[in-house]
Amino acid sequence: MTPEKNIYPKMSQHGFTLLEIIVSLIVASILGSMLLVYVGTAYNKSIEPVATSKRVLQLEHVMEDINAIYAGLLDRADLLDAFNDALNAMTLPAGVTCDSSKRFDFSGGAEPDISGASSTGNILKVVLRDTTVHPNLELIALFYNRI
User: Fold this and answer.
1) Tens digit of pLDDT for each residue in 90-129?
2) Residues near 62 by beta carbon (within 8 Å), at least 6 away in sequence
3) Which of 15, 16, 69, 80 could bridge to 20 as Cys pair (CB 3.0-4.6 Å)?
């Protein structure tokens, strides 16, 4: 008797070796940690535009209050002096400062000097600054004494 020959070739080994599994896990963990660092940084910085928008909105609300004060004083002869006094007495939210010390005037078509503080002039420059989240965030308005 002759042994029967298998007409199918011997099947190769199925599955992965232990070394292949360990190497795959190490590569996956390295890539996962790199992705986590990137996503974590992006997630932490994603709040900045929201915080900036909140501070800008707060500055705009304060400027609306300032505009209302100005509108209430329009009939006065000493408009800018009374307006400046009202601004100095105004209670501001935390982290907001108001600088209303610069007055200037356009005369003779020359460019006005708005760098220094002056107590004369028909135009008052009001600067609202945020001192908490973004120290460079400013809202500037010019108020004119038309009398």
Assistant:
1) 888 888 888 888 888 776 666 766 666 666 778 888 889 8
2) 92, 93, 96, 98, 128, 139
3) 16
